[in-house]
Amino acid sequence: MASTSNSTSSKIITLRSSDGEVFEVEESVALESNLIRRMMEDDCANNIIPLPNVTAPIFYLVIEHCKKHAEMKDNKEKKKELRSQGEELLKSDPHTYSNLMEAVNYLDIKSLMDLTAQWLADFLKGKSPRLIRELLKIKNDFTPEEEAEILERNRWAFD
Amino acid sequence: MKRRRLEELFAPHEDVLYCIFIQLDLRDCIRMGAVCKSWLSVSKWSIITRSPQLPWLMILPNFNSESWCNIRARSQLSWRMRLFNPNSNPIPAEIEENSLTKEEKELRCFLSISDNTIYDNIKFPEISGKRCCGSFHNAGARGWLMFINDDNLEMQLFHPWRRIQLQLPHHSTLQRERPFIDRSRNPLVVELKIRKSAMSDDESLLVVIHDFWYLGFWRKGTSERVCDVIYHKGKFYALSPMGSVGVVRFDTHKAYLEIITEKIELDHYQTLYLVADSVSESFFIFVRKCLVLPEAIEEAYVFRKTWGFKVYELGVEKTGEYKKNPVKWDASIQNQSKETCPHTVACVDWSDFQYFVRCFPDALEDVLLSAAGS
Description:
The structure holds two protein chains of two kinds.
Chain A: E1 12-17, E2 22-26, H1 27-30, H2 34-41, E3 49-51, H3 56-71, H4 76-92, H5 94-107, H6 110-124, H7 129-136, H8 144-153, H9 155-158
Parallel strand pairs in A: 1-3
Antiparallel strand pairs in A: 1-2
Helix pairs in contact in A: 3-5, 4-5, 4-6
Chain B: H1 2-7, H2 14-21, H3 26-32, H4 37-49, E1 56-59, H5 66-84, H6 93-96, H7 102-106, E2 107-112, E3 117-123, E4 131-135, E5 145-148, E6 155-159, E7 164-167, H8 180-183, E8 196-199, E9 206-210, E10 214-217, E11 220-225, E12 228-232, E13 235-239, E14 245-250, E15 255-259, E16 270-276, E17 283-292, E18 303-316, E19 322-331, E20 344-346, E21 364-367
Antiparallel strand pairs in B: 1-2, 1-21, 2-3, 4-5, 5-6, 6-7, 8-9, 9-10, 10-11, 12-13, 13-14, 14-15, 16-17, 17-18, 18-19, 18-20
């Protein structure tokens, strides 16, 4: 484990992802997660905190976003940068984006949850169900009859 | 192998999807429900739990366009001609040429008062050229609208979201207190126009306001003057032109109004609507605030721009009495109209109480719609 002697003001917290990788994160960043905050308050976080629902590559992304989010507070350019990165990820790799949202939801990071949900909502706005399936690679599990019924019931929304 | 294919799918947990869907407007949210099964269940969940979406007001799009002016002129002429000669051809041919395109007649916009969203240009071929004269939101009648064709007085019920139509008895079967001939002595007076209507839960009783704010229902007539009527929790309520709400009572010969609230203070040029809350006992009085557009004033009708709504809530006191609460919303739609179509509306000029012919297809028709798909 790396030494913590160079950090006087900020405590380092050690976390372990589901695939066994160990991360060291500054306390200020880690506390963005309400899950970790609760674990620390309950005093069950003395050693390494296990995160059974988050894999290492996703956790990297989460931390990266958390850091950027902390930096961007008064910085419009950083905000734009973070947003375009998020949208890029959504377009190029929706599967990872979905995992990222899952992880953010599990870790209960409110600020990031709002952001990622907002980006996706903006992405979905005004798009047809067929286009969304195509872009996000979602399988259509309706029978033709079921799909026709849904469209028929709310034709105004699909015109 | 199968597992790997599943992993490639974009499949966030339902809680996560929910966070996304509540940020979408109602139309987008319904659309997401057609993507796949899990999205459908989250979409339904999001529709049910979102803040009240009702009431919606139905508005004709781009009402100040030249073609709508023609339609109003045509409507006026047709009414006048009918008064002089009930058998005359209601549509003067020379005006018909400039009237709306088929597509324009089919479009309606909706303004959701509670979340201040405008849903633009939704197509309804079924109601092309017809005027809305009633909206029902109670029990079995929920979601139905009543339409009348002012040219031939044929009436029908229409469910806009399910797209079902039902034919109603012809207008002439509605009994009136006075025979048609009496009122037509004055050529400026128009008879026979249904303004608003309400339906009872079992769909057996239809109450309408016809002529000039007179209450009527199939089989019986009355001489009460009212400007809106709804059916709510087992009773018909009507709104007097002075802004008092009353319960509609029926005796053997006619319907009359038993006033239960005090008057609302009204300025000039305001139109009143009565709207029931879809969840609680209370209901609302909508006061539509309009501006007269000076450039558009013509002899026979006045153009109005709706710039907002004042809403009063009527709640039931413990004693069972109704009490009018202070203004609940003071919504303005001024800023909305810049990006979308200009929601300028021309309307029936009720305010001066002169029985001139000013009643053309209502620009603003009040509707209460059931939350689509829920």
